[in-house]
From TrEMBL:
Organism from which the protein derives: Teichococcus oryzae
Keywords: Signal
Protein name listed in UniProt: Autotransporter outer membrane beta-barrel domain-containing protein
Bias kind Gly residues: ranges: 273-294, 662-682
Region ranges (Disordered): 272-295, 657-688
Signal peptide: 1-15
Presence of keyword Signal: yes
Stretches that traverse the bilayer: none
Length: 848
């Protein structure tokens, strides 16, 4: 299936498309409130008209314009609300909803060619339906308009010659919500607009080719609109924000030929993205809004995809839940709770054709369902981040007097099911270029808000708890046809990597309390609790295909379920000072107590099942034939606690200073999750042939590992006092207890095929279940001192003075360590061949 390159000369360009048909709905009238008489309500935006077109002969070559075809419909902006009469809130007008984007349909044949480097992302063929922007308002904002449906049937040629110039881009994006405030009762119904359905059908005669950097062949996306943020300085506005809109369904069927030649230029990028939840400003202490859910993404490829640039995967299919909104800070009360992340949808990708990539980081297929994560940029020409951000929104800070608390972090959303089927051919040539990467990743919990309290007498501060991590969904990779094949040439380029990962638990917020008083000063600070992490989902790989990797650190088949790491506890600092400003016939008292936040438990590793009926060959060192792992998440780290007290008294009065610090340990009550998460069950059944040639390369490695127990926080306490009458000091510190390690799960390996390793330090069949190590306990450290001292040569004179008596009590206790987790049952059955050819190598290994 050789492809003749298109002769398109790239040059700077940004001009009117050759064939353009766009429609925009009418803008709604703004509302007006009156002192006397009825208000004039804001009017919704008008819908965009639907557009259908058929261009059987295309447009031909369109020089120096970049975009050749633009067809789009946008809903009208909703009218803005108005508030001009604040007397008893009798007059108010809400913002109105944005209009719906119209449906778009195009049947395209012939040849459509564009060229020219673009200053920002564009496409030779651009189709879109966009919901209108919701109207802003102090009383209530207007909902974002929904997007319509976008359809394309391509039977011809589309060519793009320029950077940031894609071949085809089709989008159905919901409208964002205007800025302002919303009443609690209606906030849920006034979120971002829903993304529409996108359906692309690329016929067998069709061909899409791009040559520039950041120029994917085909982009199909549906995005929910951004939820409404509460604007700054809105004293009279309603206090709530609105959620993000839902991403719609995206379906791509391609039987044609797709070629890209630049860096950051995927063959197919299909994604559904939930809108982000509305954020609160740095005042008010109200909650952030939840993120929108993402929809189903389905790609079926039976043609050919060839990419040559770095970070240019053949197919990227993603469903990304929207991140939760940040809770508001507060200067006089508790911070607002962060919004929960939206759930990610299912991702289904099938390949019965041919996919070939040549660059670094260019996978054959990437299928991801991620809650609150980062959507792939359609026009990015740089290495994508290896980390996922987003998830639940962070809690707001609490700043003020007497009693203050931080907002709780939002919960991470759950990830959807990921299914990949390959009955065709996949070949990658670069390092870090997987044949198939299938991932389902739960959203991380939001961080709890910090709390800071400063008061003249008594001060309390409570850090916000972290949000819980979301669970990873199921991941299934099937390759049933014996004629199917996956070959990778580069290092760290597995043929198949299937993963389900639980989201990490959110960290607890820090707490600081300080008090200053002439007689009695008391401060208490409690760090926010770290949250429990999400669990890994079930991972199943069933392969009859030929799998070959040629580079180092490149396993042929990896299946992993990993629990998320528990959240760290927030630190706590309590400071109490009692100093008389004048003579007071009362004792001086200073008490401080600090408790570090407890750490969250690690998530459970899920079940892992691998069935192999095909031939597997790895050539590089540390490149297993099959690696199946279930790993429990580690517990977090408890928050440190620091307590300090100082008292000085009037003459003739005693000074009493007491401090207590307790480091954070395992959270929860009996029966709750604590410490490291357990590993799940792992099953491997091999009837095929496996050969590994590199050193340190397992034939089959099956392992279940419990997560390590969390580490206890340290307790640090100091008491000081100055009095010429009597000093009474007490200082105690206790380190937090470490968490127990998670247990290893059951591991079963059965092989009736042939397994051979030729490198040194290589094991043919390995089955292992290992419990996690217990966590360290925290340090307990105390100090107490009386602030009167003298030179030793003056002792005989000082001894005759009526100096204060002093009573000092200190106690420090380190936290206990957590117990180690037990290993699980291990079964290893070899009914075929297990042979090793290298030195220091083992045929069979079973360990618990």
């Amino acid at each position: 299936m050789a492809c003749t390159p298109l002769l398109l000369l790239a040059q700077a360009a940004w001009a009117q498309p050759a064939w353009q048909k766009t429609r925009t709905g009418t803008k709604g009238n703004d509302g007006v409130s009156h002192w006397i008489g009825a208000n004039d309500p804001a009017q919704p935006g008008g819908p965009g008209d639907g557009i259908g077109a058929a261009l059987p002969d295309g447009t031909g070559l369109i020089p120096s314009t970049g975009m050749a075809i633009e067809i789009g419909s946008t809903g009208g902006k909703g009218g803005s609300g108005d508030v001009t009469n604040f007397v008893m809130d009798l007059a108010h007008v809400s913002g109105a909803a944005g209009g719906r984007g119209g449906d778009i349909a195009l049947r395209l044949g012939g040849s459509t060619l564009g060229q020219g480097d673009q200053p920002s992302g564009s496409a030779v063929v651009r189709l879109y339906s966009t919901g209108g922007l919701g109207g802003g308002g102090l009383w209530n904002v207007g909902k974002g308009g929904d997007a319509g449906e976008v359809r394309l049937n391509l039977q011809g040629l589309v060519g793009a010659g320029g950077s940031a110039l894609a071949g085809i881009m089709a989008s159905a994006n919901g409208g964002a919500v205007g800025t302002g405030g919303t009443e609690q009762d209606v906030a849920e119904s006034r979120g971002g607009g829903a993304g529409g359905t996108v359906i692309l059908d690329i016929g067998a005669p069709a061909r899409i080719q791009t040559s520039g950097a950041s120029a994917p062949a085909l982009v199909a996306e549906s995005r929910g609109g951004q939820g409404g943020n509460r604007g700054p300085g809105t004293f009279y506005s309603q206090p709530f924000t609105t959620p993000g809109g839902q991403g719609g369904t995206v379906t791509v069927t391609s039987a044609g030929t797709l070629n890209t030649g630049g860096e950051g230029a995927a063959g197919i990028l299909a994604q559904s993205v939930g809108g982000g939840g509305g954020n609160q400003p740095d005042a008010g202490g109200r909650p952030g809004a939840r993120g929108g859910d993402a929809g189903l993404v389905s790609v079926n490829q039976s043609g050919q995809i060839v990419t040559t640039g770095a970070y240019s995967s053949g197919i990227i299919g993603q469903s990304i839940g929207g991140g939760g909104g940040k809770g508001g800070d507060s200067s006089f009360m508790g911070g607002g709770k962060g919004g929960a992340a939206g759930a990610a949808g299912a991702v289904e990708i099938g390949n019965t054709g041919r996919i070939a990539t040549g660059g670094q980081g260019s996978a054959g297929i990437v299928a991801q369902s991620i809650s609150g994560g980062n959507a792939a940029g359609a026009f990015q020409a740089f290495r994508p981040s290896g980390t996922f951000t987003g998830g639940g929104g962070d809690g707001g800070r609490g700043l003020g007097f007497f009693f203050v608390s931080g907002g709780e972090g939002g919960k991470g959303g759950s990830a959807g099911a990921v299914t990949v089927g390959n009955e065709g051919e996949i070949r990658t040539g670069g390092d870090d270029a997987y044949g198939i990467l299938a991932q389902s990743v739960g959203g991380g919990g939001g961080r709890g808000g910090e709390a800071r309290s400063l008061s003249p007498l008594i001060s309390y501060a409570l850090g916000g708890g972290g949000g819980g991590g979301g669970d990873g969904g199921s991941v299934t990779v099937n390759s049933h046809a014996p004629s199917a094949s996956i070959v990778t040439d580069g290092e760290a380029a597995a043929a198949i990597l299937a993963q389900s990962i639980g989201g990490g638990g959110g960290a607890g917020g820090n707490a600081m309390a300080a008090s200053l008083s002439p007689v009695l000063s008391k401060s208490v600070a409690i760090g926010g609790a770290g949250a429990v992490a999400g669990d890994g989902g079930k991972v199943t790989v069933d392969s009859a295909a030929g799998l070959t990797t040629l580079g180092a650190n490149a396993a042929a088949l990896q299946a992993q379920s990993i629990g998320g790491g528990g959240g760290n506890g927030g630190s706590a600092g309590a400071y109490a000072i009692s100093v008389p400003m004048a003579y007071v016939d009362l004792p001086s008292l200073a008490f401080s107590r600090a408790i570090g936040g407890s750490f969250g438990a690690g998530g459970h590793g899920g079940e892992v099942e691998v069935i192999n009926r095909g031939g597997i060959l790895t050539e590089g060192m540390k490149s297993a034939g099959i690696q199946a792992l279930s790993i429990g998440g580690g517990g977090g780290t408890g928050g440190d606690a620091t307590a300090y007290s100082f008292a000085t008294s009037s003459p003739g009065m005693p000074a009493i200073s007491s401090s207590e610090a307790i480091g954070g340990g395992a959270g929860g009550t009996p029966g709750d999750r604590t410490g490291g998460g357990p590993g799940g069950g792992v099953t491997v059944n091999n009837t095929g042939g496996i050969v590994t040639r590199g050193a340190g390369s397992f034939g089959v490695q099956a392992m279940s590992v419990g997560g390590g127990g969390g580490v206890g926080g340290g307790g640090y306490s100091t008491s000081d006092a100055i009095s010429v009458t009597r000093n009474i000091l007490a200082s105690s510190a206790v380190g937090g207890a470490g968490g127990g390690g998670g247990t290893g799960g059951k591991v079963s390996v059965t092989s009736s095929g042939s397994v051979e390793t030729f490198g040194q330090f290589s094991t043919a069949l390995s089955a292992m279940s290992v419990g996690g190590g217990g966590g360290h306990g925290g340090t307990g450290d105390t100090a107490a001192s009386v602030g009167v001292s003298w030179d030793p040569t003056l002792s005989k004179w000082v001894g005759k003075l009526p100096l204060a008596d002093s009573i000092t009590v200190t106690a420090g206790l380190g936290g206990s360590g957590g117990g180690g987790g037990a290993g699980g049952e291990v079964a290893l059955k070899n009914l075929g061949t297990a042979a090793t050819g290298g030195t220091n190598s083992v045929a069979l290994s079973a360990i618990s």
